[in-house]
Design brief:
six-stranded antiparallel sheet, about 15% helix, three-stranded antiparallel sheet, binds 2-acetamido-2-deoxy-beta-D-glucopyranose, alpha+beta
Length: about 210
């Protein structure tokens, strides 16, 4: 009985400290622990940025991606794919080589992303990507306004599974020059797609959480 009481005391205090150490809301989004918008809350290696009411994730190359949603229980968040610039087939992070997350970061790219690459050069056909006429990237080119500039270019898609580098989505001039991503893609109807790049984070250890 005593053990039980002690246990519930300990767990309720650690829960309370967790709550008090969460950062304030950013725009409409709650910023759950350990995400940190400021040095006084969250944990410093889970840094995100609250810019004018928009919560953003900063890549290793210095590009800000808007955070669209956060699932605290599953340690996941979804960032917006970079815009494909009007009348071109170039993602706005093209000059930075696409999305790259530092190898030492607690964040990585989850295996639920279907990544679509556009305006690829022919040599990509050697790789194990789906570049067929039925690839989801064709649907994006045909049905989504943003994909218009990429029509009739060579496009391919792949599921970002665990056999792949989980810290980057690479694009480059002379390779593929634009990309997008959809999370947990099951349907071929574009209206059902959840556009975004899902990241997951390694939760802090219990010691860190208790501030020991
Ligand atoms: C900040 O957000 C408001 C409302 O979304 C917008 O009207 C304003 O232009 C933004 N300011 C800057 C500096 O981005
Ligand atoms: C490409 O993707 C489509 C749609 O998911 C699928 O039907 C087709 O079998 C895939 N083709 C290859 C070569 O993987
Ligand atoms: C496709 O990529 C090439 C470089 O690889 C670039 O010069 C060209 O402008 C791109 N096409 C479009 C429509 O943006
Ligand atoms: C990405 O991070 C998650 C949680 O931290 C981990 O379980 C997973 O193994 C990592 N994936 C890869 C491919 O490293």
């Amino acid at each position: 009985m005593l053990v039980l009481i002690l246990f519930s005391l300990v767990s309720s205090t650690s829960h309370a400290s967790l709550l008090s150490n969460a950062c304030p809301k950013c725009g409409n989004l709650d910023v759950p622990y350990p995400l940190s918008t400021h040095e006084t809350c969250g944990l410093s290696n889970y840094k995100v940025y609250c810019k004018n009411g928009s919560l953003e994730f900063l890549s290793a190359e210095g590009f800000y991606y808007q955070i669209l949603s956060i699932n605290q229980l599953e340690n996941r968040l979804i960032i917006s794919p970079p815009l494909i610039q009007k009348r071109t087939c170039q993602s706005s992070d093209l000059s930075l080589g696409g999305l790259r997350i530092d190898d030492n970061s607690p964040f990585n790219i989850s295996s639920r992303n279907t990544v679509m690459l556009f305006n690829c050069s022919d040599n990509i056909l050697l790789s194990p990507l789906n570049c067929s006429l039925t690839s989801p990237c064709r649907v994006f080119e045909d049905k989504v306004k943003e994909g218009k500039g990429c029509r009739n270019t060579l496009c391919c898609s792949y599921l970002k599974d665990s056999s792949m580098n989980s810290h980057r989505i690479r694009i480059r001039v002379g390779g593929c020059s634009a990309y997008t991503s959809a999370v947990d893609l099951k349907s071929s109807t574009v209206d059902d797609w959840q556009f975004g790049i899902e990241l997951q984070w390694l939760p802090p250890t219990e010691t860190l959480r208790l501030g020991v």
